[in-house]
């Protein structure tokens, strides 16, 4: 057996174990008994200890040194790039720190859920402070004297720098603020009214999942407090949530998570259980969920089809016709919750979190001051006050599970989605006619062929540039938003 074959065999086993650990996380958020949290924390810690030991196994370094990369093809060299990067990063993090983080964040997830339900940030603040302490310790190990936040960001968007993202966000913010103000100054379109049976919502959400190409033979749809997608390859699961008064929450959470899941399902099967067999970055991942949810799912063409589906499922729900339904789906309104925000305001929610978590990691903001800092920033950005912690700094699960550096990839994904939508529309000029029939195959097929199937073969920037024919820029996203909402609101 060659060094490369031995390295790949070992890597496949490690990635298979990581999938098992991921399944424990899926179970914890969906069906695990509430009383099992402490035991699950120990199980997750044990799995992380095994995984960390494999990721820093000296044999990996020996195999890496022995491989003649010049004799490999492009796929082999890409595998080596990922394995070498992962090995170097994992060697910097002490095993006891990796295990402690896994144990703490598994337990903290339940504590966050309880604090969120009770609107009690003070109850969660001590455990969050411990998470921040450990993440700063991890960042210090990874950064080796460099920027702490950049070291954490690199886990989710390799090679990205906070300063570059800040420049992009600074270009987005003023035009988004101006568009938001102009739209909210106009009369709001009518929203849906009534009560929407939750079982019927789930039935239609599964129909939507299928319409966007999700393979239910390789996945499933369940409910969770915070919707998410989990897994890769032949087992990719999604969750959504229901609200009797707001069916859009369910439907668009489902379409969003299907975008993530289809990316994983559509990666070349030859890459299964290898570093190339998963999405290349969270920004690219988010580009798929956002283009499925927004540029496709919230388009005038597709909402016309969805209107008919909702009439069939729920009868008359107070919206007169397809145009009124399109306006209702894309309605701008004040709100606290990031995941429920419209396209114009969504990135403002992300920028708030980006700035606050950078301050936490830098040591410029204490966890004890986080709630007041959040509330002050929210009032400044959105013009009204946070009424309770579950609508403020306790609304997202991310910090409770240690995902510092993750939030900015949401806005980066929106930027990528804007670029992809521009290229897609040029490649499929009759796309709207197809979407009006509930047919997404031309769009999802283009995304599969030009982006999804490659998995981790290219770098994030390379795969977006190749798919779009130009380097990523915020300009297409801003043009799309200003055109769409300018027309909707007569701006």
Automatic annotation (TrEMBL):
Q: Provide the binding site for Zn(2+).
A: 256, 260, 286
Q: A GO biological process this protein is involved in?
A: proteolysis
Q: Which Pfam families match?
A: Peptidase_M32
Q: What class of enzyme is it?
A: hydrolase
Q: What is its EC number?
A: 3.4.17.19
Cofactors demanded by this protein = Zn(2+)
InterPro entries per record: Peptidase_M32_Taq
Q: Does the keyword Hydrolase apply?
A: yes
Gene Ontology MF annotations: metal ion binding; metallocarboxypeptidase activity
Q: Which CDD domains match?
A: M32_Taq
Catalytic residues? 257 (proton donor/acceptor)
**Record keywords:** Carboxypeptidase, Hydrolase, Metal-binding, Metalloprotease, Protease, Zinc
Cofactor: binding comment: Binds 1 zinc ion per subunit.
Q: Which reaction does it catalyse?
A: Release of a C-terminal amino acid with broad specificity, except for -Pro
In terms of superkingdom, the source organism counts as: Bacteria
**Record-stated family:** Belongs to the peptidase M32 family.
The record's function comment reads:
Broad specificity carboxypetidase that releases amino acids sequentially from the C-terminus, including neutral, aromatic, polar and basic residues.
For this protein, the record's PANTHER family field holds: CARBOXYPEPTIDASE 1 (PTHR34217:SF1), METAL-DEPENDENT CARBOXYPEPTIDASE (PTHR34217)
Q: What is this protein called?
A: Metal-dependent carboxypeptidase
Tell me the organism.
Thalassobius vesicularis
Upper classification of the source organism reads: Bacteria, Pseudomonadati, Pseudomonadota, Alphaproteobacteria, Rhodobacterales
